[in-house]
Design a protein that fits this description.
CATH superfamily of the largest domain: Medium-chain alcohol dehydrogenases, catalytic domain
Distance between the termini: 12 Å
Order of helices and strands: EEEHEEEHEEEHHEHEHEHEHEHEHEHE
Number of helices: 11
Strand content: 25-35%
Shape: globular
Radius of gyration: 20 Å
Oligomer: single chain
CATH architecture of the largest domain: Alpha-Beta Complex
Structural class: alpha/beta
Number of strands: 17
Largest sheet: 7 strands, mixed
Length: 340
Amino acid sequence: MKTVWIEEPFKIEVTDTQMPVPKEGEALLKVLYCGICGADVASYTGNQPFTTYPRIPGHEFSAQIVSIPENEKGLKAGDIVTANPYFNCGTCYSCKRGYVNCCTDNQTMGVQRDGSFREYITMPVERIYDGKGLSAKELALVEPFTISYHALHRAPVKPGDKVLVVGAGPIGLFALIAAKAQGAEVYVADVLDGRLEKAMHFGAAGVINSSKTDIKEEAMKITNGNGFDVCVEACGLSVTFLACIDCAAFAANIILIGNGKKETTFLHSVLLKKELNVFGSRNSYAKDFMAVIDLIASGEVKVLDMVSDIYPIDRADEAFKALANNDGSLAKVLVDMTAK
């Protein structure tokens, strides 16, 4: 079968590998679409600290069931599905307390273990979720959506809350959608007008181009000098984290989704002075997958508008290179694993 293979940073190819054989309790899946995550791009460029090489990338995908054991979920051959790609040990302190997303030995497909960028994969049945009639393209967008959905449920977001999302990449846009689904009035900040246009398309109440105006001043104008009830950091940059602190109201919540790669220096007394609640967010739960599938199935969210381009599997290397050199105009890029 065809497999996308990262031999080492910047060396990617489509090669032939052996078909997988399901173990007990596993299903054989034919992969339909794969999304390219920022973590996949980081693996390609050598900027993902958790990736070992060689590595098959990918953890955002949809698939068709080829074979599956009898199961309580009612899943059967032919069903179009998606799956949870975060493998937890089940025995660490986090897992024993039910925080499987924070497993101390977490292995995410495409990072610590081989991923979905191949024509066929095997998956434990308990990790597979019924697509409920969604298209294969929509289901390939469920996993990145769950990252933001989970994050926006880390802290209480109430109807009418003013929420600021800093960063309008795919995760930031999904955070916008998730916050709106909870009844919030959502504003988005970014340095690129094209991304801010996307944010308006997905229902932002307003946007801030922080390369052209002072983000704190704009935040205070929008909130009548109060600051935002919730600030979501979706870039992973020191400057955007500090912007969230500046733009947050007293007793506000800050949610961190962006995976930072550099240290941030600040006087932590501001957290005390404003009594800010800072929430980290990692991965997602099975319940988040189910909730996101239901939300998309409701028709309220047009997630396919997030897709900028689709490449056939034979040109997967071009897709990775395009995202590695993204000028901000690309949102989600999918790879059609069945197209040549």
